[in-house]
Amino acid sequence: MTRVLVINSGSSSLKLQIIDTAVEAELAWALVERIGDPVGTLAVRRGDLAGSPGEESTVEAAFPDHTAALSRVLEEAGRLGAHPTDLGVEAIGHRVVHGGPDFHEPVEVTPEVEAGIERLELLAPLHNPANLRGIRVARDLLPGLPHVAVFDTGFFHTLPAAAHTYAIDRAVAKAWDLRRYGFHGTSHEFVSRRTAEVLGRPYDEVNQIVLHLGNGASASAIAGGRAVDTSMGLTPLEGLVMGTRPGDLDPGLIIHLIRDRGMSPEDVSTLLNRRSGLEGLARARDFRELLARVDDGDRDAALAYEVVVHRLRRYIGGYWAVLGDVDAITFTAGVGENVARLRADVLSTLGGWGVELDPQANEDGTGERIISRAGGRVAVLVVPTDEELAIARACDTVLGLGR
Ligand SMILES: Nc1ncnc2c1ncn2[C@@H]1O[C@H](COP(=O)(O)OP(=O)(O)O)[C@@H](O)[C@H]1O
Ligand SMILES: CC(=O)OP(=O)(O)O
Ligand SMILES: [Mg+2]
């Protein structure tokens, strides 16, 4: 039996799962949101253990920081009989967003690894500081267990040079490791492997475009199992329009704001990381709120939606040309899995390229499925991502637990 606690620490959230990797079952699950706000929420659920029904506990309270959030999760989990110690957890796996030039594969966290993750905080300010906090808090509260870091950038380590190179002075790029790294790689790999399995084809024979549309959003082009392009770059700012980030923009805009408009680099970082995307265009906190406002006739929301659709089409078209031929387009993550209307709108111009949705499968189905018309040239799928399961499997491999 191999049991792993997986921790995905966000800037203001904490997601946990205890997974039995031998049977790939989820034994417990927890989510804390709005850490640092006056009132946050916590939900803990115990899985269906040995036939006994799962139980859930929800709490509204202030969680001043990640330590407070994790200790409360452990307390509630203990009440439900789902404390990591009760469940015999042997290792803790962490999602770490930026692996920089040094980390490509999942690794056991040593003091050197921790220092490396800390050095990368500047490049992923929404993510790496929280990831590191998650590692430290978990070590304090659950001493004696090995920790494994799994990097979002790992899967994109093998991008061809043409796709990862910024066309700037090579010496500058080399001195500071400035290149496109790509993120959400754990998800793109998991989802693209599942896509091939659902289609019943060998992974290395399928050309695919994966659209991971969550709070952060990214696209990837995968040719026969190898990522050949992805939309995020040196940082998770580049590419698609996201919840609070703009995706692609002219770097001249940043120079202009700092040099001519009196903004500090810190102001610009806040603008681009927290006050752009859906939030900046329409003051929408998330995609559900955006859609509700579009339906109410809100013009800012309608424009934001159009910008999202336009950008997605541009990436799909670009990746099609990079791949030469596309077998499958797969949607995943919170928005990609749940918003049928966005999937239909984005693909509506691609009928001539052999992309045709089955409206019923798109709108009424749930979970993992093919949503294109039977017999069409290009398969379109929804595949729920499971970064936690992928991280738990990586822990097994790194620590040799399953043997
Ligand atoms: N049923 C739904 N309908 C519309 N949007 C949804 C739905 N469920 C989740 N979302 C959207 O998904 C996004 C969060 O996706 P998720 O993959 O959980 O992001 P992250 O992991 O980055 O926090 C939010 O914009 C949320 O509004
Ligand atoms: C890299 C990234 O943007 O992650 P998330 O979607 O969790 O914010
Ligand atoms: Mg996510």
Task: Give a written overview of the molecule.
The record marks 184, 245 as: Transition state stabilizer. Pathway: Metabolic intermediate biosynthesis; acetyl-CoA biosynthesis; acetyl-CoA from acetate: step 1/2. Substrate binds at residue 95. ATP binds at residues 15, 212-216, 286-288, 334-338. The chain is of the alpha/beta class and 403 residues long. The relative contact order is 0.11. The chain starts with a strand and ends with a helix. The chain contains 15 helices and 14 strands. The chain folds into 2 domains: 3-151, ATPase, nucleotide binding domain (Nucleotidyltransferase, domain 5); 202-382, Nucleotidyltransferase, domain 5 (2-Layer Sandwich), CATH 3.30.420.40. It has an 8-stranded mixed sheet with strand order 5-4-3-2-1-6-8-7, with helices on both faces. The site of adenosine-5'-diphosphate has 12 residues, from helix 10 and helix 12.
